[in-house]
Amino acid sequence: MNRVTLTINGRRHSxxxxxxxxxxxxxxxxxxxxxxxxxCEHGVCGACTVLVDGQPMRSCLIFAIQxxxxxxxTIEGLAPAPGQLSxxxxxxxxxxxxxxxxxxxxxxxxxxxxxxxxxxxxEDEVRDALSGNLCRCTGYxxxxxxxxxxxxxxxxx
Length: 157
Ligand code: FES
Ligand code: FES
Hints:
The chain has 157 residues and is of the alpha+beta class. Helices cover 34% and strands 16% of the residues.
């Protein structure tokens, strides 16, 4: 067993875990944050994507002990304050960019990092950045529309 201490959404979490415990399971079962979804559990679907020190990573491909000392941001940490939505979350709502919502946490974390690096993307760039996140409901057009809308609102702000 190993002691792991990391920060999730600004709050420190510490637990003694087995070395094989995945970061996704640490987030869901130790930190009790169920917004990070697990789909394939082998790095294909992107549903489990979280930000690790600002970089999007698949939490099912990282052991919790590998994230020791890191600052993690999950879907629960994207909004600026309780009861509010981030600009990207609001754009998803306004563009009807989700149905079942299973893929949505991973897409939002991935696109949050993407827009931070590329705040004025083309549609092709958005589609390319989305290529590692699978959605089986929306057909992607509304997701692309939402990211483009968020970029437009960011520019206006
Ligand atoms: S659950 Fe991690 S990539 Fe699918
Ligand atoms: S909204 Fe259902 S999988 Fe994407």
